[in-house]
Amino acid sequence: MTEFSWKRDLKFVKWGATILHNLLRAFCAGIVLAILGLVLGVGGATHGAGGGPSRGVALLVPLVWAFVYLIGPLPLGLVFGYLSRLGVPWIGLVSLAASLYVVLGDPLVWLLHKIKPQLVLVEDPGFFQFTIIVFVIDEEKRRMLQEKLA
């Protein structure tokens, strides 16, 4: 997996697959947070017997986490990437901090890829990918263009 380049790779991005893959990352991060909430007994509006979130609330966390990612961090990731390309100082650190929103889900996505690779839209998902957005690139289209130019 090569590092994404805005100039080189933007025209080869599969946007639907990119959004789906990143929603999977956010959903898996929500699963991790729900499990942590249940185990540690923190969070949730409705509390169960142990003072932690009820199972019903914990089941909603992955869905809510993925939805919030879609309307917040995902668009911010595009803006941060563009600002980084323009050379805005410190934007990389802001982007790194924002990536923590989905990084928690990366080990689950990696594990899912090992168990059932066709469910993950990226050829080689990293165990941890400290980026807000993982772009899915049409490698065949890029290869064909490179062969045409060569």
Polypeptide structure, described:
It contains 7 helices and no strands. The protein has helices at 6-9, 15-40, 55-71, 73-86, 91-103, 106-115, 139-149. The chain has one domain (6-149). The radius of gyration is 18 Å and the shape is globular. The relative contact order is 0.19. The mean pLDDT is 83. The protein has 150 residues and is an all-alpha fold.
Quick rundown:
The chain is built from seven helices and no strands. The protein has 150 residues and is mainly alpha-helical.
- Strand fraction: under 5%
Query: What radius of gyration results from the CA coordinates?
Result: 18 Å
The chain-level mean pLDDT equals: 83
Q: How is the main sheet built?
A: none
Poorly predicted regions: none
Question: What is the domain total for the residues?
Answer: 1
Write the layout of secondary structure elements.
Blueprint: H1 6-9, H2 15-40, H3 55-71, H4 73-86, H5 91-103, H6 106-115, H7 139-149
Helix pairs in contact: 2-3, 4-5
Which descriptors apply to this entry?
150 residues, mainly alpha, 63% helix
